[in-house]
Amino acid sequence: MADFTVGDDHFRLDGKPVRLLSGALHYFRVHEAQWDHRLSMLRAMGLNCVETYVPWNLHEPRPGRFRDVAALGRFLDAAQRAGLWAIVRPGPYICAEWENGGLPAWVTGRFGRRVRTRDEEYLGAVERWFTALLPQVVQRQIGRGGPVIMVQAENEYGSYGTDQVYLRRVAGMLRERGVTVPLFTSDGPEDHMLTGGSVPGLLATANFGSGAREAFEVLRRHQPKGPLMCMEFWCGWFEHWGAEPVVHDPERAAGSLREILECGASVNIYMAHGGTNFAGWAGANRSGPLQDGDFQPTVTSYDYDAPIDEYGRPTEKFRQFRKVLAEYADGPLPELPPEPAGLAAPVRAELTDWAPLTAVLEALGDEESAPSGVPPTFEELGVDRGLVRYQVAVPGPRRPYTLGVAGLRDRAVVYVDGVREGVLGEENSTLDEPVAGPAEVELWVESLGRVNYGPRLGEPKGITGGVLHERQFLHGVRARALRLEAFEEPDALAAVAFGSVEGAGRTGLFRGEFEAAGVTGTGHAGLELPGWTRGFVWVNGFCLGRYWSAGPQRTLYVPGPVLREGTNEVWVLELEDAGAPYAELGPGVPVRTGTPGEVQV
After folding, report:
1. Rg of the chain's alpha carbons, rounded to an integer?
2. Residue 512 and residue 522: Cα distance in Å, rounded?
């Protein structure tokens, strides 16, 4: 048993000064069979601690329906086996470039702008979540022989609001449920963020990517005493669909890390290993100073240009960081574990079976809603990830008028009388050709990820306004959802009526097989779909996430533990335009590096 405390100048373990050299690694972005390897990589880089968020929406997808909350406990046990302390950031809001910032869609759908405030109904939902989650943390605190040394109250609240009553309530909930280790907050090193997000009596920490001395000067104005810590040292950045790749120069990043440590501060490298936004859990952003501009969905990869890449391999940034951290280690750093092996040789998965989207919806979809005056949103249908087919009639006779969608979030493939007429988005929400009545209209709408940061947090998905013919709303809308989670059920595709891929349409569910050998455990493969447009891929029932020809990501990461010796199955759900009838798998993409024209952060 040990005692970890926050002193006037240092963190202290049993009274002795200690510096935290931590790295972020999200258990929910890494296949569980690979946790031990990735954690050993953190140790080899020179770290003594690991930090993780906890996504509420992953573990309580519907009210009172908890799913594998014990995963956090298993990860903390793995951290202890690796010889690492652990910092836990349970939210309830986490940002993390994760769907809805970790808040369940049913929470934001029910409480709207009351989330992240003192609202009693919202706080009641948080209390029930913490009651289910926190035993995983409490029994693994350092005072009980476990690895957990600190727990965060909320997350970067100063970037959102000023409700001190709410922050104190969140901190109180943690204490009331047995959290005895130090609590902390983390915010950007700005006066308004620190005044909005700090809580008297809790350690305040700062998040930044460079300029440590200036950042800590600002933090000291608000917290004259206590250990300095950069809780998120942004050594890289995330990427958006349709945007340029983002890289951060390794030498410059290592210099920023050194500056933090020269200030006598502790650090949490964000990310040490980013992992992957499997199963459509990637979030999104809005551009502009008020985050109310263009919609920017986050890609499936969360490589983050981290020192340990998405495939678990050390990068040049890893080597640079290891040199810096070795100077602050108590002794020689551990040797690196064996590098994960990629697929021995490229293979092709021939996609031989096909089912149209209507057949998939019939087999796996929810019941269709009754006709309504306005289209129900995803939240009103209880849908977090997936797509919804909306159907509505254009009455007639009437001459052709423009047909469009008000409040479309995020992308719709539109059919008129069974004929595809276009793909609409938020910025181009009207069909090119006018539509005459009478006509039957179908809109297959997909959410590309809910906003995870800023005032647009929790915005609804689907058709949030209405379908317009000229300036007239069309009423009597019917909706039917196809949830991604439906594909997770055992024998999920048993009821799907497949036919031959010959003569397949542009959209639908495609199925095929490939043979693999020699990749298990920490190994990996990379999967590409030549000529395909947008959708989701599963290997042996495991959802790799979204693919999209918009780029910059072209290759999806396939964890080795998902693969089988011998025959493996691939499913491809294409929502716009199918390509060649096969998927290509290989050893994986190279470590990403900066090239001219790429964004440096």
Report:
1. 25
2. 25
Element (H, E) at 348: strand 347-355
Q: Exposed (0-12), middle (13-18) or buried (19+): which is 49, by Cβ within 10 Å?
A: buried
- Report the pLDDT value the prediction gives residue 475, as an integer from 0 to 100: 98
Distance, CA of 74 to CA of 79 (rounded, Å): 9
**Active site (catalytic) residues:** 156, 232
- Give the CA dihedral 147, 152, 153, 159, nearest 10 degrees: -170
Structure tokens at 501: 């891929």
Query: How many other C-beta atoms can be found within 10 angstroms of the C-beta atom of residue 554?
Result: 14
List, for residues 324-353, the tens digit of each pLDDT value. Answer: 999 999 889 999 999 999 998 899 999 999
CA-based nearest residue to 21, from 308, 305, 261, 336: 261
92 within 8 A of 119, measured Cβ to Cβ: no
Residue where the block lists tokens 């030498």: 251
What single-letter amino acid sits at 304?
A: Y
- 567, β-bridge pairs: 515
Q: Is the pTM of this model over 0.85?
A: yes
- Locate tokens 């605190």: which residue? 141
- Between the alpha carbon of residue 435 and those of residues 186, 351, 465, 466, 478, the distances in Å are 53, 36, 19, 16, 19
In this predicted model, what pLDDT tens digit does every residue of 430-468 receive, in sequence order?
Answer: 999 999 999 999 999 999 999 999 999 999 999 999 999
